[in-house]
């Protein structure tokens, strides 16, 4: 039976406000203590009470158990109860200190729930998570880690986590890990660790120091991701790049070698062919002189031999010139000269090539003094004129016009020959290219290539207009230095 | 009659050149390498020398260098007859004191005209 009931602190109406107890302590006095106990456990309490009185001592009630009390309105709430006892006038009295722990239980529940939430998140994360204390020993691994290694938390905790690190990586890993801890600095280290199936996998291990709310170092937290496939792909890619680079260099070396070989060959051929050609040509000249018979047939063949030697020499020269151009070994040597006189000497040179009845007209307009590379210009004009001669019929006219004005020397070579098929215009300056309608007219397809390069070396331009059956006109513009 | 010294290691070219020049009215003496050419030039004092560049024993440059050092031969007109088209080589030859050069294969008339320029 309740003898007395008080609320702490006194004079509050806590009991009422919470509807916890009867409207006043007075209301409880004289009632059995069980009125404060939920009905479902009430009957047990009667026995507990009896055994307490048999052996009374100060202790918390129902240690390890969750205790509940009942409010006047029937609501059940959690409590903590301490028991004590004393004798008064020979009567044994029990004192119960009852604390409402509703708030504490709620707070604990929230903490428990949030811990569970985090744990759940960590365990389901695709990355492995670890936590270590200040002594470098691990205090937590998430499920992802445990699953990866096929290990248990008990085994991994402490220093079990380093078990399975590749022997070649362990020293490096430990150095990075220990240094980072000592310096309390974030770190990243890539290393291989044995997976549950025995395969070593590349992992990226990141760690970051952690601090308490009071800014006290509490250890490290980190994640660990399986980057094996990426790393393998990366390595494969790098290997491929290295391989390709080597191949490329090899190809370049081969190309260079081939070029050098070609260059050496061209130079050797050009030199070595000249000795037998000299013998052929000088012997031919001698036969010509010894041939007192004035035999027309012999003379015809002698002249053919001389012409063939001359062609061959031209071809050798072209090969050599092109090779030099490609090696970048050609320099322009400008000199001042009279272009009108120069043109006349060119006409003398090509006269021997002209077909029966072919006529070359030459007109020059403007200042005659020019500054150009004479040898290159000679090559250009002899080539264009001999093309005109070769690809024009007998009894046709060829016009060589030069025009010096506004600092430009413009030269046109116009013929009325077979012309160039339009579809082939764009290939005309390519080396070894010969138009389809050239038939059996001899040529190497190098002349125009060299002509164009020479024109360009003198900062000039070359173009042509041509129509099959009507003829071709080549136009060259060569800029002159301002002082002239 | 003017004397021409032909220094040339290829027998056919040496003989053909000799024949061409003799037909043109020159007296021709020959040498088949640079060393011999130098000796013949010194001994016979020709009026003009035709000399190949690439030769065994002593090349054309060396021949010219030696000829220009000796008072007896310093003024003899010297013409290179070369298969080389290398501008640098031709330039070097001219800088060393050659009077002219003729490129192989040469035209008979061109050779004779060039020789006559220096006689």
Show the helix and strand layout.
The complex is a heterodimer of chains A (484) and B (119).
Chain A: H1 14-18, H2 25-28, H3 39-54, E1 59-60, E2 67-70, E3 76-88, E4 91-100, H4 102-124, E5 128-132, E6 138-141, H5 143-149, H6 153-156, H7 170-183, E7 187-194, E8 200-211, E9 217-226, H8 228-272, H9 274-290, H10 296-326, E10 335-338, H11 339-351, E11 359-366, E12 369-372, H12 374-390, E13 397-405, E14 408-414, H13 447-457, E15 461-467, E16 471-479
Parallel strand pairs in A: 11-13
Antiparallel strand pairs in A: 1-3, 2-3, 3-4, 5-6, 5-9, 7-8, 8-9, 10-12, 13-14, 14-16, 15-16
Helix pairs in contact in A: 8-10, 9-10, 10-13, 11-12, 12-13
Chain B: E1 3-7, H1 11-23, E2 27-31, H2 34-44, E3 48-51, H3 60-69, E4 78-82, H4 87-95, E5 100-103, H5 108-117
Parallel strand pairs in B: 1-2, 1-3, 3-4, 4-5
Helix pairs in contact in B: 2-3
Keywords, please?
heterodimer, A: 484 residues, alpha+beta, 13 helices, 16 strands, rod-shaped, B: 119 residues, five-stranded parallel sheet
Share of residues in helices of chain B: 40-55%
* Strand numbers in spatial order across the main sheet of chain A: 6-5-9-8-7
From the N-terminal CA to the C-terminal CA of chain B, the straight-line distance is 11 Å
Strand order of the largest sheet of chain B: 2-1-3-4-5
Distance from N terminus to C terminus of chain A (CA atoms, Å) equals: 136 Å
Mean pLDDT across all residues of chain B, rounded?
91
